[in-house]
Write a structure and sequence with these properties.
Rossmann fold; 15 helices; elongated; 2 domains; single chain; four-stranded parallel beta sheet
Amino acid sequence: MHPTPPAATDSGTVGLVGGSGGGPGDRGGTVVVAARAPGAGLAIADRFPYSYAVVDVEGSGLRARKDRVLSIAVVLLGPDGTAEGGWSTLLDPGCDPGPVHIHGLTRERLAGSPTFCQVFDQLAEMLAGRVLVAHNARYDWQMLASEAMRAGRSLTVEQRLCTWVLSRGLGLPVRDLKLATLAEHWGVAQTRPHDAADDAAVLALLLPRLLGVAAEQELELPLASCAGEIVAPFPGRGPRVPCAYVNPGRLDAVNSELPGAMNSELPGAVCTVGAALVQGMVTVFTGPSRMTREWLETAATDAGLKVTDRVSGSTSVLVTNDVSSGSRKARAALAREIPVVDEETFLRLLADVRPGVPRPQTVATDVDPPAAEPRAPLASSPAAARKPGTLAAAADRKPPTGRRRARPHEATAQPRVRVLRARHAEEDPGAGAGAGAVDAGVAGSAAAGR
């Protein structure tokens, strides 16, 4: 026997003021959850004395190390399930948004939205000291933590609660554990599936009910630790296209005392800030950055620079915010005394790239030489008879007889045997008469041939 769900009058309403579920021009807003906590709110607080941050993330894919966050929504709940606030925003990931047919977030809609770095402080403040709650919380947490790692920051979240795992342990009379199915089970309206703001608001209404059932069954919450499970994400990558300009060499080290110089005490470090970028310069990026790696590499390529993935003798400049990071690229740049600039300096230089020397292009002639007319071989010629696909070859082809076709060397097998016998007869004068007759014939033929 399963517990009876709360009455529909407790379902409440879900709303969003200026959030990601609005029109194409929205950038962010406040998630409004107008709901009355179930009557067992005090029992929930006594049983589970936690504050919650209900989160939903929409991303460009399912792999946190590679894919990016497109939108975030957070709803804050107190220990008794009462809503304490909410917030949502779209993000500009600087990359392809992925399956638009699922989340509806196109490049045009995301254009002009803040980056993850720009909203990090607000997000970190909302999550601090709370249990992160999401439907498939592992995905949402890994996406947020990976974005923070790309920005060189970290989120102070100790525990997370997956409502899918929690629902599985409650034995609810539902066909599956999808968010839409749970919402239908408790009479909560879901108006925009796969919209971060709407999904977070719906889950915020479901969480008190799930906690109430868990308290009635005297179950412990399946809390999971958020520490030590995030693998460093892959930085994004810009397009790799042939550079139309000749490499002019390294970025000149002009004045290492100007603001933005990489003032490093490491041996071999080159501080470069005052020179100008020239089209064709070979540029390499390493380490975390404020802007996404994909955005930086795309901007460099669009400006006429050549972006590569490794440092070599032809590298013109290395862009990094921490030359002492110990990365392979940083070590190679220091060893080769390649100029190094930080991200801020690179962006300033990128705004005024000098023209480069175009690579010589192959000039095509206006008049093409006349093409030689192919000559068809005569059907009666030996070449035509031997050439596969000709009519003569088809006419001479015999149907298979089932016998093994004789190999070329088998036609001369008998003469080869006779010669061997002749040589054997010379070495053994006492050979048989039959062999001698054969040998005599061979010897006569050989004499006649001389």
